[in-house]
Automatic annotation (TrEMBL):
GO MF annotations in UniProt: biliverdin reductase [NAD(P)H] activity; riboflavin reductase (NADPH) activity
Species per Swiss-Prot/TrEMBL record: Phytohabitans rumicis
Protein origin, superkingdom: Bacteria
All residue ranges annotated as the NAD(P)-binding domain in the record: 7-203
Entries under Gene3D superfamilies matching the protein: NAD(P)-binding Rossmann-like Domain
Protein name, entry field: NAD(P)-binding domain-containing protein
One Pfam family from the record: NAD_binding_10
Signal sequence interval, chain numbering: none
Length: 231
């Protein structure tokens, strides 16, 4: 399996590189020129294409011949970075490739997600302030996901809860909608978010799904497991 990791130098990206190498995959990483050194620990084990992730030529080169593409969607800046990145991957990945994108719970696919007033207020206020400061554009991440959901590629959009560092707790559990009690704990180890992304490459049940994930050992996941009969 040959895969491309778009945004490989970030925290999530580096965990995904490790999981992919552990599985014996051939890995091509994409990151900004200034971040190439962050991938030094993988020197000789992965190939790196340096450049902006929304540069269509960079993505075309990086995803050539790949069976899967893992993309870290970040709403940074106000130059359509997320939607530009997503569009480049959608357009240039080979037909039939597995495409897995990361984002947060704030993205909704069908409008049936339930959010607390706190989350709604945070997204509204912080989102507006961050956009005004030209730091973050949450609307562009929404647009990126709208395009992914509308595409006929083999996509999965993995929606992360709040994140923390720490040892793996195993593969996160998931639900189609936030507000589902299984997700109440709202915390996932970053290493396990990465694990879910990499495992999704081989899980066809996740094609055309937007799973909202939560840590496997969190109280809400454990409580749900205790009340769910084994298959
Ligand atoms: N943080 C959270 O609590 C949280 C919660 C839920 C979901 N998520 C999702 O998780 C994913 C990764 O989140 P993370 O917090 O773990 O971040 P991360 O892995 O550290 O990723 C940040 C990414 O953004 C890039 N980046 C940073 N500054 C940039 C700039 N000015 N222009 C362009 N690219 C820039 C980084 O590249 P360089 O290495 O080049 O800097 C890196 O690839 C995202 O999809 C996010 O929506 C995060």
């Amino acid at each position: 399996m040959k895969i491309c990791i778009v945004g490989a130098s970030g925290k999530l990206g580096q965990y995904m590189v490790r999981h992919a190498l552990d599985r014996g995959y051939e890995v091509v990483g994409v990151c900004r020129e200034r971040s190439v050194d962050k991938l030094g620990a993988f020197k000789g084990r992965i190939s790196v294409v340096a450049g902006a992730t929304n540069d269509r030529e960079v993505i075309a080169r990086a995803v050539a011949g790949c069976d899967g593409v893992l993309t870290v969607l970040v709403p940074l800046g106000v130059d359509n970075y997320s939607s530009g990145t997503a569009q480049a991957v959608l357009d240039h990945a080979r037909p039939g490739a597995r495409l897995v994108f990361s984002c947060g719970w704030h993205i909704t696919r069908d409008g049936l997600d339930v959010y607390s007033w706190k989350v709604k207020a945070l997204v509204k206020v912080v989102g507006r302030l961050a956009k005004l400061a030209r730091l973050v554009d949450l609307d562009d991440q929404v647009e990126a996901c709208r395009r992914i959901f509308a595409s006929d590629t083999r996509w999965t959009v993995v929606r992360g809860s709040d994140l923390e560092e720490g040892d793996s707790q195993g593969l996160p559990v998931w639900s189609r909608h936030t507000g589902d009690p299984i997700l109440d704990s709202n915390i996932t180890r970053r290493v396990d978010f990465a694990l879910f992304m990499v495992e999704a490459l081989r899980n066809d049940e996740l094609v055309h799904e937007a799973p909202a994930i939560v840590g496997r050992q969190t109280p809400s996941a454990i409580a749900h497991a205790a009340t769910t009969p084994a298959p």
